[in-house]
């Protein structure tokens, strides 16, 4: 009794378990055999605990590297600066020297960067700037925004003070946040 390869594959990979199959033809000698290849299984998150695990996994994929020294073509360096946009210290100086930040421009896209004024008296004064950044990132899904710990260097704020300003950014797939911001948002 001659058994066709397609029958063996169908028994090994039944379509009912793996969803619809993709077909392809293969010639063997004088015969043409249709081979069904199962599609990949997708994981479905069903419980609340599974959903929390999925969200943690997505956040881990969106953690800004601790040291951003170079950028891929679609990446944007997001840094904090003062209201005058002097870019004379820390990450703002690095942004000006390496990624085209424009001295005198305190906010918005510039070169391969996005500036957020963070050297302000009160943390609440930073929120409108962060909100504008999040809207800008949403409008540019083709870019990946690497937010460093803005406001936590020379501006003197703590991550647990600044992170809540980025709560809306936590749901935006093209915004990466520093690990310390994610940790503060998870509490």
Notes on the structure:
With about 190 residues, the chain is of the alpha/beta class. The protein has 2 domains: about 5-40, no CATH class; about 50-185, Leucine Aminopeptidase, subunit E, domain 1 (3-Layer(aba) Sandwich). About 35% of the residues lie in helices and about 20% in strands. The chain is built from 7 helices and 7 strands. It has helices at about 5-10, 15-20, 50-60, 90-100, 125-140, 160, 180-185, and strands at about 20-30, 30-40, 75-80, 110, 115, 145, 175. The strands form 2 sheets. A 5-stranded mixed beta sheet has the order 4-5-3-6-7, sandwiched between helices. Strands 1-2 form a two-stranded antiparallel sheet. It is globular, with a radius of gyration of 25 Å. The termini are far apart.
